[in-house]
Amino acid sequence: MMMKQFIKFDVELRNDDRLNNDSRLAYAYLYDRMQSSIKHREFFDQKVNAYYVIYTVEEMIKDLGVSRNTVINVYKKLAELGYVIKKKVFNGATRFFLPHFHDDSADSKPSKVASGNSNHINSKHNTDKTAVTAGVNINHQNKTVNISEFDLMQNVVDGLKAKAAFEPDLINTLVKYSENAHCLYQYAQLIFKTKKASLKRALKHGYIEARKALYFETNCHMQDNLAKTMRNLIIQTKTNHKIHNKTAYIAQALYKFFDAAVLDYHDRMNMNVVKDFKIPIM
């Protein structure tokens, strides 16, 4: 006779009207798997300083018994509401961090980190109750470490400073209007993607100085204006309820912003050429 398997279901999820039953059940599966992830060091992200879950779309399709689009929308909804933070990995599966996860076993006894086979990560196991905290409680080398939403946002900020050359004014603007680390990451991604597309389009049309025009390091004028532009766009999308696709609205405005930045940079470079021009003495 086969034994029944159970997963935790947070009663608080039932009170969140923004979630449908598929989203609630999907989060329960993610939460359940995290109980296994925290016992395995290979599921600890050194950069984020937190454990994560791998739950592919295909797995969730099978577990929920729904379509691919439904699962994709469920993951998107959970991320938008801050229940999960997604981190895409090059040539790897997407990692899910759970800001509200709490390791119940840590309250009674330390959990040991397993070094052996981790295949059982993908299996379901019996659990009892769910506790929700403001951060993520993980067990690392027999010490309970709290990973808060602030810590996760700080990790994104550090990356924007070191790798993207974002100035403090731009970073502060994005942080101020971001509900969580995922939201902050999404705003930054919009900037990266639209800037890259604008650069490609400008080079195609013969603007040879486009790279310098769109590099933050070589065009100091752009970041100041970008911070103001992002602030205005975010406020508009949060207050104007007629804007249904907020991402598309911001992206379209950023395309125009970066295109204008290229033209402005070229105009200034041409003006410098005119100023430096001297009539040769015969």
From TrEMBL:
Residues 105-126 are annotated as: Disordered. Residues 167-260 form the Replication initiator protein A C-terminal domain. It comes from the Bacteria. InterPro entries: Bac_RepA_C, RepA_N, WH-like_DNA-bd_sf, WH_DNA-bd_sf. It holds the Pfam family Bac_RepA_C. Residues 18-78 form the Replication initiator A N-terminal domain. This is Replication initiator protein A C-terminal domain-containing protein. It comes from Apilactobacillus micheneri.
